[in-house]
Amino acid sequence: MSTLHAQDHTPDKRLAAVCGLFCPACTLYIATQEDPQRLKRLAERFQLSEEEMRCDGCRAEKRGPYCQTCKMIVCATEKGLDFCGECDEYPCEELKSFQAAAPHRKELWNAQARIKEVGYAQWFQEMYAEYTCPQCQTLNSAYDLVCRNCGQDPSCRYVSRHKPAIMQHLDKSNAMRTR
């Protein structure tokens, strides 16, 4: 398996959602770009084809099922904004609901503030560092509790800060699937 490394990437707005999520650290993005077995498991879990699951980033033409119906990108595009934090209505109810629904979204407010403070390009680099394994420099998702390459526990700084919430979310998701 090839692995995404922080030093290999330059900022690309297609890989930053208007809400503040960082696409390269998305489970679906990682599966699409470099882990066909993971993509297959996700497709089976959601009862979709692998092609339907594929995602090249929130602003790319090929987006995953959730991102295809994202109301926030439609809103930002209509208003001519790059990120939700630029909006006079920030944070809107849509974004608040979205943020509260899953642990990989816990730091959206921080992301929006940081983008404003240091700019998109610097934030992008910081996000690579945030999701990179300290041991082997592999980029992991918020749901990779241990590094998907070397097994380091926790996989990255984000997981280190939010591991209990992530585990609770995963347990709840698994319980719902077994019903």
Shape: globular
Q: Structural class, from secondary structure content?
A: mainly alpha
Largest sheet, strands/sense/barrel: none
Number of strands: 0
Low-pLDDT parts are none
Range of helix content: 40-55%
Average pLDDT, rounded to a whole number, is 92
- What percent of residues are in strands? under 5%
Number of helices: 9
The radius of gyration computed from the alpha-carbon positions, rounded to a whole number of angstroms, is: 16 Å
Q: How far do the termini sit from each other?
A: 33 Å
Secondary-structure element pattern, one letter each: HHHHHHHHH
Total count of domains: 1
Please summarize what this structure is.
By secondary structure, the chain is mainly α. Helix content is 49%, strand content 0%. InterPro entries: DUF3795.
Helices and strands in order:
Layout: H1 27-34, H2 36-46, H3 50-53, H4 65-68, H5 71-79, H6 93-100, H7 108-118, H8 120-131, H9 157-177
Textual characterization of the structure:
The protein has 9 helices and no strands. The protein is mainly α. It has one domain. α7 packs across α8. The radius of gyration is 16 Å and the shape is globular. The mean pLDDT is 92.
What attributes does this structure have?
179 residues, 9 helices, transmembrane helix, transmembrane, DUF3795, DUF3795 domain-containing protein
